[in-house]
Automatic annotation (TrEMBL):
Keywords on record: Membrane, Transmembrane, Transmembrane helix
Protein's name in the database: Tricarballylate utilization protein B
InterPro entries: Citrate_utilization_prot_B, NarG-like_sf
Record's keyword annotation contains Membrane: yes
Keyword Membrane carried by entry: yes
Residues annotated as transmembrane: 103-121, 141-160, 216-238, 244-269, 289-308, 314-334
Amino acid sequence: MQMQTDFLQEARRQAEICNACRYCEGYCSVFPALHAERAFSDGDLTQLANLCHNCRGCYYACQYTAPHEFDLNLPQALADVRQNSWEEMAFPRAAGKAFQKNGVLIAVATVIGFALLFWAARTLPSAGDEGFYAALSHNAMVAIFLPAFLFPLLSIAVSLRRYWRHIGAGPFRPAHLITAFRQAADMKNLKGGHGDGCNFEDEDRFTHARRAVHQAVMYGFLLCFASTSVATVMHYVFDMPAPYGLLSLPKLLGLSGGLLLVVGCAEMIRLKLQSDRSLGASAAFGGEVAFVGLLGFTGFSGLALYAFGQSTVMPTLLAIHLGAVLSFFLLTPFTKMAHGFYRLTALVAEAGRQK
């Protein structure tokens, strides 16, 4: 709790200086929201932190960074508040804090643990099914993944309700959600203040690389989710169970989504390793890399399963892939995957405040 208070006090100090300066007014959504206030409550600072994309453009343009006596580092100040808010509002809170401290270890351990469970579950009867279901029955998969899918939804719903109350957002309006979705789909705030991109990796180099990899990861995940959803409809509505052919809609969506995920996650990790850690929440670096690595590995193991699904290694690959998928879903509320939900909620709240 003391650390949370320290982060908020430092963010408040810097926000007050930025509010007086206003040099960065057009850089991103943070500054119009910041300049609309005269005093900053804890909820205001949490909202500003979740509007921030940590592009770092304001830091490199600022005349008050170290060695100036003001020693401004707004990207880091907001990153610390943002990370701490995710931990405090996570449901359950202890799980959020644990992942941020031991993200890599937890991600690896859960994938291995669940993979071993799926490997052991091969002994369950599969009723003569084909393809992947010959290794693990369809009913067993549903029994395992349905609760694993519902738990993150419940957890995130509780977390976002806490966030909405904490920032003092007004009544929810569907029109605000539409505005937020448009901004999120375009990733407007990663274009930079002048549309030249952001200088996340290098002070003197503006690129759209970070925006591109974020879009690759987001749309890759959505395509993979669409693949599963289409396969579910085909199975239950049209009585067309798997396995599906290479040119079927589930396979086309899954392959394109998996490729985008793997490439996007690999490039995102590269950009993170190149960037200056002192401009972000350095204590959360391991947890961020663990999440991106887990998401990328989930996509990679799915592609490997597609490639070798007819070989003798299929049962092993299936166990590994399902272990990765199950780990990803169960850990979603406590990893940086949750930041997409918080960011969207922050955009919805901001759209309401601008009306």
